[in-house]
């Protein structure tokens, strides 16, 4: 099963160049069958630029998540902790394999009319 995630373009690029191996989330999908993420690069790109396979999803207190993932975070420690401000737990989606599309796709190619706030299941 796949989900569509909105990711800021600078972070999406780092996922595909291999320098960011974790995508951080405050909330995560409930469906345990999800094994692939379709990446929507948000404004100003506004296109689906590729996908990645999920290796694992870590769930922990932000401090422990940072310790476990900081070497491949792709973001600064300050940015990480600002993102998780006032959160007792967080998620880190570990990227396994990536595939960047040769031609970025519009949302409607996946029968989606507007980008998800966080994520959206794709069937």
Give an overview of the whole structure.
- The chain has helices at 9-17, 62-69, 77-83, and strands spanning 2-7, 22-25, 36-41, 47-60, 90-105, 119-122.
- With 123 residues, the chain is α+β, with helices and mostly antiparallel strands.
- It has one domain (2-122): Archaeosine Trna-guanine Transglycosylase, Chain: A, domain 4, CATH 2.30.130.
- Strands 2-5-4-3-1-6 form a 6-stranded mixed beta sheet.
- A hairpin with a 5-residue loop joins strand 3 (36-41) and strand 4 (47-60).
- The longest helix is centred in the N-terminal third of the chain and has 9 residues, at 9-17.
- It is globular.
- The termini are close together.
- The model has no long low-confidence stretch (mean pLDDT 96).
List keywords for this structure.
six-stranded mixed β-sheet, globular, 41% strand, single chain, 20% helix, Archaeosine Trna-guanine Transglycosylase, Chain: A, domain 4, alpha+beta
Give a topology summary.
Blueprint: E1 2-7, H1 9-17, E2 22-25, E3 36-41, E4 47-60, H2 62-69, H3 77-83, E5 90-105, E6 119-122
Parallel strand pairs: 1-3
Antiparallel strand pairs: 1-6, 2-5, 3-4, 4-5
Number of domains: 1
CATH class group: Mainly Beta
Relevant CATH superfamily: Hypothetical protein
Distance between the termini: 7 Å
Characterize the biggest β-sheet.
6 strands, mixed
C-alpha Rg (nearest Å): 14 Å
List unreliable stretches of 5+ residues.
Answer: none
* CATH architecture level-2 label: Roll
- Give the CA-based shape: globular
H-E order: EHEEEHHEE
Fraction in beta strands: 35-45%
Arithmetic mean pLDDT: 96
**Major sheet strand order:** 2-5-4-3-1-6
Count of helix runs? 3
Helix content: 10-25%
- CATH-defined topology: Archaeosine Trna-guanine Transglycosylase, Chain: A, domain 4
How many beta-strand elements?
6
Structure classification? alpha+beta
């Amino acid at each position: 099963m796949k989900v569509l995630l909105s990711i800021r373009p600078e972070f999406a690029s780092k996922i595909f160049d291999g320098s960011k191996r974790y995508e951080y989330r405050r909330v995560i999908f409930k469906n345990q069958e999800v094994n692939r993420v379709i990446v929507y690069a948000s404004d100003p790109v506004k296109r689906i630029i590729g996908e990645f396979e999920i290796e694992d999803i870590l769930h922990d207190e932000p401090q422990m998540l940072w310790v476990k993932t900081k070497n491949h975070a792709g973001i600064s420690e300050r940015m990480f902790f600002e993102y998780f401000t006032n959160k007792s737990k967080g998620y880190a989606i570990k990227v396994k394999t990536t595939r960047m599309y040769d031609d970025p796709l519009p949302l409607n190619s996946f029968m989606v009319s507007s980008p998800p706030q966080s994520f959206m299941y794709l069937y």
